[in-house]
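Researcher: Go.
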Amino acid sequence: MSLKDLIDDPAEVLARWPREPLRFHRDPADFHHLLTLGEVDELVDEECLAMRNVVLLKDSEIWEKHTYADGDMPRRGAVREHLDGGGSISLRSLEQLKPSIARLHRDLVAETGYRTHVNAYLTPAGAQGLKYHYDPYVTLIVQIAGRKTWPVHRPFVENPVQEYESFHLVGFTPEQKHHLANTPPVEEFTLEPGDVLWLPRGWPHSPYAVGDEPSLHLTVAFKERTHHWLAEQICEDLLGRALVDPQMREELAPDVVTGDLRPAVRLMSEYLIGSLLQMLDDNEKVAAYAREAALRLG
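Model: Structure:
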């Protein structure tokens, strides 16, 4: 299963990552092999979900694990009790739990070179798990069962990543909270089974289940490779080459470390610049290194 099974014009998307939300539609039956509401109910009721695979949330609060844990497993009946009380659950890292999703995960990593994970969210009818927040990566929302409405606002932060300006690090400012509370969303998508929503990183959203049935969707997260990531790969390769140079393994005298480091910094800067210039003649090798890293870390 590849991107073409989830979205339209995958070649165009792979060439130019969309920056606006997009909705696609597939036959709901196309996703039955990935996950069904019945399978999730069975996982819950047969107590098959380990703590590493399930998170409880309600009204934008992520429950502390100690409140429902019994060792490596949830306390018996705790997950069903949470659902019956209007709470939502997130099933994490499904690519490690279900073969069909493992195959989807593997194919998407190979197709994009991006780190990817697949979670599922089950929300009771009329309930809400997470209120306004944004993700530091693009997500594909694959609606499996029920209906869910997704109000979205334009990003406050340009190109957030997990390590910089992500929601879990900075949250919203008072001004941003005021904007979200008093400004209509720029778009609102109500997803039905078979719908797929492309949600670019940074777009604040506050999804909630609508109708008389519980909502179940998959979230396919693509953690984009960025220019900063490529710089990291080049530097990693550069430092790997430096490590085999005996001169680079020589010690810095204590008087240098605790004293005037400027001459040593200048020397190392010249060394690194020279190494970078040499790498220009070895461009394909460095590119191959980065490609392998992308697929290896998927």
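Model: The two ends are 16 Å apart (CA to CA).
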